[in-house]
Amino acid sequence: MVGRKPPSRKGSMADVPKDLVDQINRLEELFTVPAEKLNQITDHFVNELAKGLSKEGGTIPMNATWCMGFPDGNETGTFLALDMGGTNLRVCEITLTEEKGEFDIIQSKYRMPEELKTGTAEELWSYIADCLQQFIEYHHEDEELDQLPLGFTFSYPATQNYIDHGILQRWTKGFDIDGVEGRDVVPDFEAALAERGVPIKLTALINDTTGTMIASAYTDPEMKIGCIFGTGCNAAYMENCGSIPKLAHMNLDPDLPMAINCEYGAFDSEHVVLPRTPYDIIIDKESPRPNQQAFEKMIAGLYLGEIFRLVLLDLHQNPDCKIFEGQDVGKLQKAYSLDAGFLSAIEEDPFENLSETHDLFQNKLSIVCTKPELELIRRLAELIGTRAARLSSCGVAAICKKKGWKTCHVGADGSVFNKYPHFKIRGAQALKEILDWPANKGKGRGDPVEILPAEDGSGVGAALIAALTLKRVQQGQNAGIRDPDALLKACKAFDLKKPT
Ligand code: BGC
């Protein structure tokens, strides 16, 4: 697939009536982001990244994570990792083995009940602690355990004064649990564990992007950025402390590395540069957190199906065009009833007559589409998917431009990156347009800046960051560590090689 343009239905509109062609043209205008606009967005993005690192701060949080270095492949020991994702909760036990860069993993997934996302803080922490307890009881039955070090992947914006601490700035990705924003999540989490007597020591609270960067760097030294293109979107990269003015008061060695969790889903929440459509504006207004995460709401998996649904509903209600005439659109009226997987399936329909799309609409929405309607639907999915991929590249390009990196590898994970058709090639094409590569470059594989599938960030990455943190404590490098003594105690219980 890489190296050639993704297929497009643009040319197959011969039998589409004029009112629908007019609408398709209007949608193309609305959703197409030309190279010039990508460049304008990226330039603004570079400034906003810098602002986020400044003392005054900016819209993009640019959170210091206190993950202060890459692994060298010699990390060893056994660690727990907990990933609080949007759909699942995953618990892993990871053993970093003596063989350089290798590991063993056992893991269990638990469903994250939908009600939890809008429930109470107590319900959330109790559920998570119960899952951890179950995991430990199952895998360590009848063992006398001291404390197990845990890397907790908590993928929401958090202010971290220490690596084993994190004040939730705001919920994203549709979460809306009272009493957590503005609080350090660690004590409540630890209290729920203590109540159940679960022998775990939270060693590092991490973001999925930081985990992705570190896990990918474990096996590829050219990795400089970790990205998630999934339910939400974000990236992390390694900064040097001397380039973080908001940490200047701490007098850290300016050459020390510091992973920055950009939280760039918040980019342009003041609406200066992103080409928002009326549909993006509705999504924002009706979300639990309006005026936040502007960039994310245009590109992340949680929103792609909803953008698509809003457009179709608008067209159905538009007297100038006739779609789904005489059909019951009751199911289409339900907010968030279509996910990014629905759009993927439309883009993947291999048949010229779009029969799979026809069946999807009939089965999922009880709508029987005409052929011209199917053409419009397919083109709309392409437009939304292409816009997401192209805009996504602006964030990556902005980090490269800010750091002056002409070449690097970017580790990427998330459902949209892994599963959405043509996302990778569309993104690579946009990067080429922004970073202005010579004509023979920009074909995906082998590009100067290459976005590659990442290693498991919230599992292996979390374990590695926990290992790196303990190594730092053992070496007496306690910057950004709240409770070094407790961590040292946790190390002792652990098969952790003394630093050489
Ligand atoms: C969160 C980030 C996270 C991203 C990808 C965003 O909504 O704020 O912390 O990295 O989603 O999961």
Topology:
Layout: H1 18-31, H2 35-53, E1 63-64, E2 77-84, E3 88-96, E4 103-111, H3 121-139, E5 148-154, E6 158-159, E7 167-168, H4 185-195, E8 200-206, H5 208-219, E9 223-229, E10 233-240, E11 257-261, H6 278-286, H7 294-299, H8 301-317, H9 340-348, H10 355-365, H11 371-403, E12 408-413, H12 415-419, H13 423-435, E13 449-453, H14 457-474, H15 484-492
Parallel strand pairs: 2-5, 5-8, 9-12, 12-13
Antiparallel strand pairs: 1-11, 2-3, 3-4, 6-7, 9-10, 10-11
Helix pairs in contact: 1-11, 2-11, 3-4, 5-14, 6-8, 8-9, 8-11, 9-11, 11-13
This protein binds beta-D-glucopyranose.
GO biological process, one term: glycolytic process
Keywords: ATP-binding, Glycolysis, Kinase, Nucleotide-binding, Transferase
Catalytic activity: a D-hexose + ATP = a D-hexose 6-phosphate + ADP + H(+); D-fructose + ATP = D-fructose 6-phosphate + ADP + H(+)
Report on this structure.
The strands form three sheets. Strands 1-11-10-9-12-13 form a six-stranded mixed beta sheet. Strands 4-3-2-5-8 form a five-stranded mixed beta sheet, sandwiched between helices. The chain has a two-stranded antiparallel ribbon with strand order 6-7. The chain has two domains: 1-61 and 223-406 and 408-447, Hexokinase, domain 1 (3-Layer(aba) Sandwich); 68-219 and 456-492, ATPase, nucleotide binding domain (Nucleotidyltransferase, domain 5), CATH 3.30.420. The two termini are 46 Å apart. Helix content is 41%, strand content 15%. The chain has helices at 18-31, 35-53, 121-139, 185-195, 208-219, 278-286, 294-299, 301-317, 340-348, 355-365, 371-403, 415-419, 423-435, 457-474, 484-492; strands at 63-64, 77-84, 88-96, 103-111, 148-154, 158-159, 167-168, 200-206, 223-229, 233-240, 257-261, 408-413, 449-453. The protein has 500 residues and is α/β, with parallel strands linked by helices. The structure holds beta-D-glucopyranose (BGC). Beta-D-glucopyranose binds at residues 155-157, 172-173, 207-209, 228, 230, 232-234, 263, 265, 296.
